[in-house]
């Protein structure tokens, strides 16, 4: 009896011990939840990003709510991501949830960051990060950063009618996989023209005896559409830096461009020439005649090259009046723009063919081009020198012999031949014989084919138009559902871009007019652009929507 009880109690005792040991072991291995905030550096620079991590350690992420970082409003959050990891060492298990932020300070100063969240009904707080933000480093400082952006404006002050060059350069001591702007560059009251990417260069630069690769990230010409004081905004920029890692070849780093101030001054009205066409800047003229002596019936060429830091868009013609004794044929060779040493330059060439209308000594008077010289701040005239052309040879008399010979040609008699029609009658009364001229039959068949093709094209166009209209209606639906004036203009830009494949924000007014002129909406669209861009203090969303509605009725 005792032995029987003993055998029964041993397994039960072992089970009790195992449960106690397992419970005790589990209790020992369980860890307290921890919450922590980390950053790359506590000393940041304006315009340079940093990696911020909110770590949730040994806590069930599904039970974490109301996560917040106090002080984050002083930084721009460029990206947010999450990663999970589990680590087991000697039965010691650690789970970590990392919420990763890439942040960039909005301004200089001292800031504090502290995280908090609600976990299992209690509020937990992280450690506090005290961050100091200083001005960004540029190349003139004693020590430059390994990666930085430089923003250059060719001039801080220009006259209305001039162009200014804006350049963004990326300096790096890292291997750069790729780079680009995160924001769309739109500058109010300016027309932007980008330098094509194939003309952007990369070379080496030495700063404080350190070797950098300098990339021309973006270059553009700015043309003001009004006078006043303007600010070129800051823009976010991303550079993918090579890591050499097998799984991730690069990592993103974020920078911010510098803002720039620009003043556009009005042109003086005093002593303004009548023939002034809006050429502003330093203008240089080179002109050459290819000959001074010629035979009647030949031609001579006048080559003119205009160059300088002036805007040559308005210089479209050299010879505005007739040149006595010559027929004039003028050709514009095109405009070349460049940014040399961060300064805007332009060059335009003209070729003028002069054909003499008589012989003798023919005088060509000097030709003058009015412009406003920004150095002397006065109106001047650039001169194309005159010359004397000697035309030899006799002027041939009018010869009409060929015409007379033609008129005196003997008239060839045309014999009219009448062909009697032969009628073959049939005895079959069930058939009807139709007599149609061959040319009439061919014309009828051609018209029939054109009608059939027209119907096919119409049905095909109608089918595509119905598809397009549904997309246009969706854009219009968004337009009707908003009263925000900036959003209204953005949707209007999308509407025009969808229908006519042109962006109002990225195209010049002349380009917009040229494209939309044939659709009879150029004036209406330009009026809307003028109202949105110029009437800033008097904007009315209701008025803007009414104007856009009128355009929509035309294009739908």
List the defining traits of the structure above.
556 residues; alpha+beta; Immunoglobulin-like; 5-stranded antiparallel sheet; 4-stranded antiparallel sheet
How would you describe what is shown here?
This protein is an alpha+beta fold. It has 4 domains: 34-134, Sandwich (Immunoglobulin-like), CATH 2.60.40.740; 147-265, Immunoglobulin-like, CATH 2.60.40; 283-392, Immunoglobulin-like; 466-555, no CATH class. The protein has 7 helices and 28 strands. The protein has helices at 2-29, 401-407, 438-480, 485-500, 509-516, 522-534, 541-555; strands at 34-39, 43-45, 50-57, 64-70, 75-89, 92-105, 109-119, 122-134, 147-153, 157-159, 164-172, 176-181, 190-194, 202-207, 210-224, 228-232, 236-242, 250-256, 260-265, 283-289, 293-295, 300-308, 326-340, 343-356, 360-364, 367-373, 378-384, 387-392. The longest helix has 43 residues, at 438-480. The model is unreliable at 1-8, 20-29, 138-143 and 399-427 (pLDDT under 50).
């Amino acid at each position: 009896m005792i032995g029987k009880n003993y055998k029964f109690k041993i397994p039960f005792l072992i089970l009790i011990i195992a449960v106690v040991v397992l419970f005790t072991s589990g209790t020992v291995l369980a860890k307290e939840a921890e919450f922590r905030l980390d950053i790359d550096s506590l000393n940041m620079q304006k315009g340079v990003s940093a990696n911020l991590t909110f770590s949730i350690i040994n806590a069930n992420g599904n039970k974490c709510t109301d996560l917040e970082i106090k002080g984050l409003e002083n930084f721009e959050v460029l990206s947010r991501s999450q990663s999970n990891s589990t680590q087991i060492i000697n039965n010691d298990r650690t789970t970590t949830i990392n919420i990763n932020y890439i942040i960039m300070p909005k301004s200089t100063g001292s800031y504090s960051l502290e995280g908090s969240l609600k976990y299992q009904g209690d509020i937990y707080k992280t450690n506090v990060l005290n961050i100091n933000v200083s001005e960004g480093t540029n190349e003139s400082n004693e020590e430059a950063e390994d990666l930085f952006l430089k923003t250059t404006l060719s001039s801080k002050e220009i006259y209305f009618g001039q162009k200014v060059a804006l350049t963004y350069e990326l300096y790096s001591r890292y291997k750069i996989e790729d780079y680009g702007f995160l924001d769309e560059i739109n500058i109010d009251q300016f027309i932007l023209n980008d330098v094509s990417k194939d003309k952007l260069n990369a070379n080496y630069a030495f700063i404080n005896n350190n070797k950098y690769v300098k990339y021309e990230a973006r270059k553009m010409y700015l043309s003001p559409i009004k006078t006043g004081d303007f600010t070129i905004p800051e823009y976010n920029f991303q550079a993918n830096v090579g890591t050499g890692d097998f799984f991730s070849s690069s990592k993103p780093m974020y920078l911010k461009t510098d803002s720039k101030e620009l003043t556009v001054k009005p042109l003086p009205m005093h002593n303004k020439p009548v023939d002034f066409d809006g050429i502003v800047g330093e203008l240089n003229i080179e002109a050459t005649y290819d000959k001074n002596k010629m035979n009647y019936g030949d031609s001579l060429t006048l080559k003119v090259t205009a160059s300088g830091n002036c805007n040559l868009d308005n210089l479209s013609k050299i010879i505005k009046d007739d040149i006595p004794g010559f027929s004039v044929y003028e050709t514009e060779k095109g405009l070349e723009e460049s940014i040399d040493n961060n300064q805007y330059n332009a060059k335009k060439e003209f070729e003028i063919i002069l054909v003499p209308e008589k012989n003798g000594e023919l005088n060509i008077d000097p030709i003058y081009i009015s412009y406003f010289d920004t150095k002397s701040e006065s109106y001047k005239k650039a001169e194309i020198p005159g010359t004397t052309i000697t035309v030899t040879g006799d002027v041939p008399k009018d010869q009409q012999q060929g015409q007379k010979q033609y008129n005196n040609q003997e008239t060839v008699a045309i014999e009219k031949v009448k062909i009697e029609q032969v009628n073959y009658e049939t005895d079959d009364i069930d058939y009807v014989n139709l007599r149609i001229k061959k040319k009439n039959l061919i014309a009828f068949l051609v018209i029939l084919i054109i009608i059939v093709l027209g119907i096919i094209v119409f049905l095909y166009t109608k089918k595509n138009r119905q598809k397009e209209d549904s997309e246009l209606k969706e854009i219009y639906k968004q337009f009707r559902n908003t009263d925000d004036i900036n959003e209204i203009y953005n949707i209007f830009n999308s509407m025009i871009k969808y229908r006519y494949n042109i962006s109002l924000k990225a195209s010049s007014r002349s380009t917009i007019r040229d494209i939309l002129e044939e659709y009879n909406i150029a004036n209406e669209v330009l009026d809307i652009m003028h109202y949105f861009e110029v009437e800033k203090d008097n904007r009315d969303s209701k008025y803007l929507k009414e104007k856009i509605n009128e355009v929509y009725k035309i294009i739908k």
